[in-house]
Amino acid sequence: MTTNCENCPLRQLDLFDDMSQDEANFMTRFKTGEFVAQPGTELLAEGASSSQLYTALEGMGLRYKTLEDGRRQVVGFILPGDFVGLQSGIMGEMQHSVEATTRMTMCVFNRSEFWELFRNQPRRAFDLTHVAATEEMVLGEMLTAVGQMDGLAKIAWVLNRFFRRLTALGLNENDQVPLPYRQQDIADAMGLSLVHTNKTLAKLREQGIATWADDTLTVHRPDKLAEAAHSVGVEIVKRPLI
Amino acid sequence: MTTNCENCPLRQLDLFDDMSQDEANFMTRFKTGEFVAQPGTELLAEGASSSQLYTALEGMGLRYKTLEDGRRQVVGFILPGDFVGLQSGIMGEMQHSVEATTRMTMCVFNRSEFWELFRNQPRRAFDLTHVAATEEMVLGEMLTAVGQMDGLAKIAWVLNRFFRRLTALGLNENDQVPLPYRQQDIADAMGLSLVHTNKTLAKLREQGIATWADDTLTVHRPDKLAEAAHSVGVEIVKRPLI
DNA sequence: CGGCGCCTTGAAAAGAATCAAGTCTCGTGG
DNA sequence: CCACGAGACTTGATTCTTTTCAAGGCGCCG
Known about the structure:
The structure is a homodimer of 242-residue chains. With 242 residues, chain A is α+β, with helices and mostly antiparallel strands.
């Protein structure tokens, strides 16, 4: 029993642009099925050319690149509503791997119908470009954090981002949001060592700003967190849902 | 006297995808003129919504984000053939500023005709998405370098990238390519201090790998440079020209 | 000639990585 | 039912990369 795009629960959210009836119909045709990934599964591999494109419907995952020496750079986190596989759809090959952190439900689209989308659904084509541009924007902000901030600000930055984004997804209950990643994932995302990440998280905890334990992030002082992240004004941008 | 897209010198290069006659005609109509920017000029400002989109025809520039405390993160370098302003075209607002480093000649396109491109030129729309995806890919690689590599590898990485890209643009003469940036620009791009950048450049020079002086980068040992950059196999990807 | 921008170099200070244990939880198998 | 091991989180001590501070040099332009 797969979810029909017209009844997609994500469509209700303010975070996402409205979708016309016509577009929803098209998406339902474009969608070839659903796929459930178990925790730890690799959905797409760097260098691989997948014939499948996905939109995350439920669960969380991450994008990462691996270096020869085993180091890993997390280049993004995948939350519900995120489109996955655009690079392979456009350039024929993924430049990073994608892994499910929790159990994930993915909407599956067929790459062969990708071209039809550009020919017959200019609005959806525009949205796809929007998705790519948004991704680029996020990477630019992340690069700025990794390149210019010190440890405390980096950690605050990424926690703040999660907090706001997950709140926009309606997952905030009493200033608590689910955050099922490991400390190593955050360390690899922000270019810090695991040990330093751990000590920095402890600092944020001791200062009564935010506590992250048991896959749950509790933000006691959202204002202080944003301040520590040097990103007071940053809004989570509205985006199209593919 | 502006350059006609059909006779655009960049089109000759292997680096760029072929363009059909029909597409070249469309681009000529899409193009509203040319614009010459003097060194140091700000072409687009972060947060601004420009009604103009550009393709760099000649010269070099850079994209950067500024933090409240004055720090700066360079999020990309603009070389001939690069498209500028996609974010403002798609999302209505630039997320980074763009500055001309040298004198630059820019092809100017009108944002108001942007939508027509998506409606009537699906192939060009696809190319635009390709540009966005390529940009995302480059940022991902840069993030990996900034997040995971040490100083020497970071500098080697960026020099190697310039060397290969400028070579693909036909600007390589005897292993020398023009590189008109300041050390501070490279430092801000790779998240290093100016002092450390300078000392690291000295190291590469002493080791006989590469010398950068007088706006010219000379690579004595391309193999060693790529090795130091941990990016032996990375190719400069072919891309569409907008 | 003087000042400004950029590059260079040395010394000191600090932030982050690495090394090294040790704890806690949870699932597995004896 | 409990011992055991794996995986993740903590914490202290040490090492080292990188930053910051400070100063001088060089070329260019008014």
